[in-house]
Structure formats: structure tokens, C-alpha cells
Amino acid sequence: MTEQTPSTETPRRIVVAGGGPAAHRFADAMHARGLDGWHVTVLTEEAHLPYDRVALSKALTDGGVDLTLGAASMWDHGSLDLRTGERVVKIEAGAKTVQTAAGNAYEYDELVVATGSDAVRLPIPGAEHAHVYRTLEDVWAINQALAELTARLGRKVNAVTIGGGLLGLESAAGTEQLGATPVVINGAPWLMNTQLDEGAGQALGRLIEAKGFEVHGGVFPSQILADDDGQVTGVLMADDRIIPADLVIVAVGVRPRDELFRAAEGEEQVFSLGPRGGVVINDYCATEIPGIWAIGEVANYGGMCLGLVAPANTMAEIVADRLHGGDATFPGFDTATKLKLSGVDVASFGDAFAKTEHALEIVYADPARGVYQKIVTTDDAKTLLGGIFVGDASPYMSLRPLLGRELPAEPGAFLSAAGGGDAPETELPDDATLCSCNNVTAGTIRDTINGCGACEGNAPVQELGELKGCTRAGTQCGSCVPMLKKLLETELTKSGVEVSKALCEHIELSRQELFETIRVLELTSFEEIMAKYGTGDGCDICKPTIANILASQNSAYVLDAGRGTLQDTNDRALANMQKDGTYSVVPRIAGGEITPKKLGVIAAVAEKYNLYTKITGGQRIDMFGARLEELPEIWKELVDAGFESGQAYGKSLRTVKSCVGSTWCRFGVQDSVAMAIQLELRYRGLRSPHKLKMGVSGCARECAEARGKDVGVIATADGWNLYVGGNGGATPAHAQLLAKDLDDETLVKYIDRYFMYYIRTADRLQRTARWQEELDGGIKHVEDVVVKDTLGIAEDLEAAMAKHVDTYIDEWADTLKDPERLRRFRSFVNAPDQKDDSIAFVPDERGQMRPATAEEKAAAAQQPVLLGASIAVRPGTPAPVGNEA
Fold it and tell me: pTM for the full model?
């Protein structure tokens, strides 16, 4: 054991070989415990910051997604040094140095090896033509190859994945989302044979075949066939069948990257290796050479190397703890697995195969429905040993923390598919692991809820987001979030804290309840609503919320009938206020398409009013620096030229981003621009709980980044794939596939239903991603309502959207028609001609103006300030046209 060195001494040097999730977790664990007395150097051969390999499927379907682990700012710490492009090739244990492929040597006092594993490649002819599924570069290459093949072949690509395990099914599902025909070849008789027994594996096979997957099991491939140009044509099987293929992915397993521990020819083997690879470690993750540790997939413990995130995180924490003088030990591998594959739930944990002596298996199987549930217990049917769930994994979250414990009810009560209803209510013991990825117990969660030691004043934690941040629970795979939320609400209730869904202190109804009340009773004013369901005069929560609800149900002018006083600053001005008190002007440019003539109008307006111009991420042009009193003048010129409000200021549809689509692009398979314009003009002005963004991509290359939007549409050879619930922001989320290969009419119908259902049921300021997460059933519930109409409200939702479309008015065009409405656009109510002296601009070095700093304003108040050939604008004076003096 190595104890922490006091900070007054020379820092001890830790070198980490590898830059994957295990390496990141170790660096993070050291950072969290304190780096006084330590200097950590992380050497990674990849060009990226450490990223989440568990989420590679997201990068497969969206090449632009950011999988970076944690906050990149962590690496700014003076005692953390991340070096990319540095592959460690040799350990000099005697000299305590490592050598890299670039020829550099790094000295260490402690060496942590986290080199992970490599994808296994098949030793068959033609294997060089196959892709593997292991790194960002691997999945980017698959994405690009699929896009190019789709464009060249003019049809669906036959994407064959060899391997029916976790990675294989994940990659196959990704190709399916990208518009290919997914084919799975599995040497074992059933899918996921490492995690599932035969009944579960066969149920999974039936379910994914029903989703359009083609599965070939129980036979191995013998050759990957290709033409003279190297283009794959098929896979020759051991039984002489040929399975047509345009692209082949091999995902048959991983092999520990333990070459650093293998002796070169003629040298003595110093490190012990497992029979199937990996360096042998003890129960605190140390190798037999003092000062050398191994964590993650390269570490062999108990004869096993395992590629799961939970044990890798645990190993990293153990080494960090030991280096800080602790005595943590590795408890063994947690092999629990839970995933959703193309909408199919799969979960496995504990002794899933009932290998324990005298174990009982309580099974419910319904082949017709593709449902399989099994609970494994001790022979007295009391202690939980493991379980498998396919098709309906709802009991998993209740059972997983009870592994090794006595069940609170007889086992059959947990088989929800058998008709027993929800799993029995379970009070988790304090030492039960709630989040296996980060090894967080229920007791830790309870302690944090009742008083977080890391928070100022040991303050209690009463919000889910704060609870996740303090404990790390739910921050990795996310499968424990429903249980985490439930535990939070239970503990708050026990503490006498009412878990209220009230909108605010003035209205006891939730936003959803308030929306329905206003809709059903056809209430039209704030005063009427408060008289019936509120108290007091309202606040900055209920006022804009009610204004938003009224606007989403009635397309009348948003600032009339007293509604103007309810709105936020931006809505009252119909423009976004900037840091210096000026406003931005954003005309709608539907789908990003604009004529040269209209571009000229924007240029003329920007020059006339000396506005800073910027092309936004939503494919339109933002003009900054307009004074409040200038807004009507600017908008009159824009409206006269055919522009309308882009509503960048409202909780409403912002933009529909598009690529150029099939009209111009050689890869495009549908006219994405026309569809984007149709959607933007349909949903413009639609007020909602939060801002809405959409994207339309003309092919699987996804240039419009549609899966980062609330609603994303991606073209296929057979129509459109519809994705919902994508968000950027502080907690980004990928949109999930809702329906595929839709025609134009069905696509629009489903979007109508989705938006209206979200508007009616989401909380105040809740983005679509968070709304979907909190719905009981998640995306499956959304599919039931929007696609299958299980609630019988589809016609009502469509009618509500039709009403919006039919009654839409452009807010700025309407404002300009009414002198009374224009009165609100004055800096000073009692002095309409006086300008705000606090506003001043200076020329920027890039040829445009910018807001003056406080120092520049002070100088300008004394005298005009010459800046090269330009002058600063003195406060209160009209802006010159252009920037030149």
C-alpha cells in the first residue's frame, strides 16, 4: 500500500497507460480525493478526450454526438496532464518508466494500466473487408460507409453483423436506425447466450425479427465474399449458404490488451496472465510488481476479464482509495446487464443460469408475445440469486438491488407479465446497491437526501438533478434513475416534505392539470383563471406559464387582453434582450432557404441600423444591437420584404434545420429542404412548455443533426424515419426512433400528435427529452399514444394542431398594424423621444460593432474615443451607418 505524500514534498508521479472510461474514472477519483502530493499523467493513443464507449451506438447513428466523459475542464487542473496520441509500448519496471510509440519516456512512482481491450477479428478469408465495432473511428467509418453505399446502390443496404451478443446487437440496431436492413449472424443457437438462457434468447430473437431484423443462429461464417474492387457481396456460411451483404461488421467479442505485460522473446515472463489473457490482479487491483496496478478490461480477477463499466469504475475507485491510504477491496464482478434494443427490453443479473446448487427457477414464458421472465432463488424460494427478463423488464429495477437478499414477497409476485401487476413495493436496505455503475448504495442516497456533507451547511437535497450530481447515481447508463426518483420522493415524504406538483405557491394545480382545466372550461384570461384556481396576484412562475398555456390554445395576439403583463421580457418586446439592453432581430428563414434578394434586404437593414450580424446554428441570420424604439422600424422593412417573426424570443418553435437534400446533394434520398420548409411553416408560432427545435436530414449522413432536436426527421429510401426527444443544452439527449419509413402525410400526422401531447402534459420549462424520460414507459408510452393511439386521443390532438395552423398570425405583422400596440416599444413611457443613455457601441476588430465595455463607456462619457479609423458611439447619439469615421 502506498500512502499519500504530503503536499510540501515533491509530488509523486502517477502514469496512467490508456485513456478510456477506466482511466478517466481513475483520474476523476484522484481529483475528487485531492491531488495534493500527486501528479497524474494520462497517456492515451486516441486523439480524443476519454469518451463513453457504452454510448458508441449514439456515435454510430449520429457522427456529431459528443461522448466526452465528465467535464473537460477537469483536465485544466495543474496536477492532471492528459496526453493524446501517446501509446505506451513498453514498461521498464526496474527503471520505473514507460516508453511510448512516439519515442518518449515517462517516469513514474505508480503506474496504472488501463489499456482496455481490442475487438476480436475473425480468422477467415475476406475478414479484411469487414468493419469492427470498438472505437469512435470504427463507428464513424461504419456510418460513412452506410451513407455512401445507400447513395451508390439506390436501395437499402444489407448490413450484416457477425455476433449476437451485446455489441453485435447494439451495432445491428444502429445500422437499422440508419436505414439499412439489419442481418445478425450468431454462432450460438440463441442470441446473447452469455447473458440469456435458451428460452430468453429465443424470445429475444422472435422480438427483433418482428422488428425487421434477420437472424441466422447456430452456424458460423467461413468467408466474407467481395468483388474485385473489394466491395462486399455476401457471407459464406459453414453450411455453404450465402447470405447477401453489402457491409459486414464483426462484433464477436473483445480481447484484453495485455501486451504490456507479455515478455518479449527471450525475456522472462514477470507478470501472471489469465488463461484467456489479462494481467492477474489481487483484491485491491495490484499486480505482483509493487507500484503497478491494472484496472478495467485488461485486469484479470478470479480468472475473468469483463468489459462492463461497473467493475471498471469500482477498480478505478479502489486504486485511488489505496493511493490515498485507504483499504478498499474489489468485491468481484457485477455482471448485470440491461438494455433496450430497438424498443425491446432485455435484462439479466446475478446467477441468471441457476448454477447455484439446488437453485429454483420461477419462469413465465409467452412465446406468442415474445415475453420471457425468470427469477432464480434459493431452494426455499426466499433469497434472490438472479433473473432474466426479455420483452418486459419492468421488475428488474425493483429486484436488482435485492440480489442476495430475502424477497419481500413470493417470487411469482414479481413476474409482471404473468398478470400479477406491478412488482410489490420494496423498501431497499441501506447497503443495497442502487446504482451499480457507480456503486452507490440506497443508504448513501438517503443520507444525501437528508443532508449532503459536500453541500454548504450539510443542506438536504430535494431535487433529482442535484441528487445525481452529489452522488453520481444515475449519471452513467441511467437505468437506475426511476428507482432513484422513487427513493427521493419516498424519503421526502417520510421527512414530512410534501412532494408537491403545484405550479407555484399561488396555484396548487400542476401545469398539466392547469392546462386541461383551461382547455376544458375554455378559460381565456389570467384574472378568470386566478379567480377560480389561484390565490394572490401571481408571480414570475405562474404568470408566464398561464400566458403560454393561453397562447398554445388560442392563436390570438399574445400581448392583447392584458396578456402582455404576464409575459417575460423577451415576449413583451417580441425580441431577445441582450446584455447591454439592446435587442436582437431574427426573421424566419424556413428550412434555412433564402433568396439572394432577401439576403440583400437583411444586409441593407443591418447596415442602415448598424446591427451586428451572425449566422445562427439554426440556419438563419441574427441581427444584434437594435434599440427598443427601433424594433418597429426594422420590422416594418423586413415585413414589407416578405419576412415574418422567427420567434427566437418565445417558448415556441425556433427553427427546422435542413441539409440540401436530394435536390442538390448526390447522397440525398429525399427532398429535405421542402420537408423542412413544410414543417416550419406548419408549426411556426406554436407555443409550448419550452422552446422546440427540429431537423430534417436528406439521408443517413445526418448533416442536419436531426437526432439532436426535439423532433428529427431522417430520410430513407422508403420515406422518413421520425425521431423524438432530442435536446442540446446542459444535459444533451439523443432523439429516439418513434416510427420509420413514413410517407409525408403520416409523418406530419405523427408530429402533430407528438407536439400536442407534449404541450398538454409536460411540466413548466420541461424539454422534450426530460418529459419523455419521466413518462411512465418512456418512448414506448409515446409510441402507444402517438402511433397506436392507445388513449384514443389522436383525433383530438390532430384537431388541436389543425386549429393552430388555421389561426396562425405573424406577431410582428400584427403589431405594426396597431398604433396602440406600438406604444410599448419606447425606452421611456413618459418621454417617448428620449433614448437610453446607457447603450453604447464600439467597432470590433472583425469589422462590426459590439457593446461597449464599462471602461469604454466611461471614456466615451468624457470625449469621443478614436479607435484607428473608427470612432466609438457616444452614449445617447444615433449610430452611424457602418463603422468607418
Answer: 0.56
